[in-house]
Request: fold
Amino acid sequence: YSEDGESSSDKGKAPMEANVDHLRVLEQAIEEQRSEHQVLATKVDKLDSKVNTLNNKFDMIIALLQKP
Reply:
């Protein structure tokens, strides 16, 4: 029996709700991290593309400078 007036069906309910709330907070944090990761991945892709473009330009300059 429950000595504090709670029915047996209510036992353990509050800790479970706290766990659910904690899981929601974690889920939200993971979603934010995923979003930030996608933004970062996009920036890295753009930077990689710019580096490739610069490499191509340097290759053209070097080729022009090596012509007799």
Observations:
- The two ends are 99 Å apart (CA to CA).
- The chain has one domain: 8-66.
- The chain has a mean pLDDT of 87.
- Residues 13-66 form the longest helix (54 residues).
